[in-house]
Sequence to fold (380 residues):
Amino acid sequence: MSGPMVLPGGTLGILGGGQLGRMMALAARTLGYQVQALDPDSACPSRSVVDRCLTASFSDTTAAEDLARQCDVVTLEIEKVSLSTLNAVSRHAPMRPGASVLEVVQHRGRQKAWLAKGGFPLGPWREAHSEAELSAAITALGGKCFIKSSEGGYDGRGQYEVKSASEAGTAWKELGERSVVAEAALDLKAELSVLVARGPDGQLAVYPPAFNHHEERILAWSLLPGPLPQAVLTQAAQVARDITAGLKVEGLLVVEMFLLGDGSLLVNEVAPRPHNSFHSTEVACLTSQFEQAVRAVCNLPLGSVEVVRPAAIVNLLGDLWLQEGGPRFAQALALPGVRLHLYGKRDARKGRKMGHLSAVGSSPEDALQRVKAAATALGM
Fold:
């Protein structure tokens, strides 16, 4: 059952108060919703933009129930929420997406197994629960692999690259001697992602694929729409649509993919929330990913995903704040067509996402040139 709409004037709860939750909250407020959040960090980015923010662990079921009792619907901006918390929320308000989705996606091994069972294209992989199993997995995959924690890990964290099984012991220790997934290293032509919104009634909206570039395993910049062959764009959109429908996601799902040299696509991973690679939707599309997330979980009609202007983003990491003089905001903002988005984080750290720059252009490549010029002016 789809359930009733949660109309503007209602209250949206968000598990997580990071930058994604902050931007979702701002979109919800624009639509006329009250917003409450829960996050372990008392100084989280969402605190200054929501009506109420509970400081509690993502495994604190009592706090989660307190939040849910005062909300008409609850969503999330982070995967590392315990299933018991999600179930606790659902006793008092619709939890979208729900525990059935998170049970699959928050564990890399279960996610891979679900995708494989569904016939979705994956690169060679193995799950390992011990150092010996990891060594055997690396050997079976040909030696050169990326070893990834089964749970947690983001922005390159929780990963270790190996060239042979002789490094299994080091990788096992570096990743906390816990369950891991080994993935064969591939010769990639490109990385892309597709964002799908799905309402409780099954309605779907699929954004055009974004083209992504990573540096040190962290997204450096992204283009929308991705300048890729039409056949690739069509296939990527269909794969993402099928995964979203199969999981019965209520909310957003991003599907990260690899494009190989022979033109084939492989699914890398999925995440049931707004995604860094689609921040450009705020300036590129009729409906931003954050407004779309609110529409989807509130069971409102989904907005148009039409790209009205090609756009690009560049991530701003804490490294820039640690440089002498810090970011040169005035110089960057002097360039036409550039917007600055800061996340309200108090402490800058190396590799920490502090904000992003966005720019529009006559083409994705033109937008990228503009945003890169702004990044240079900023001091990057």
Q: What stands out?
A: The longest helix spans residues 230-247. The chain is about 30% helix and 25% strand.
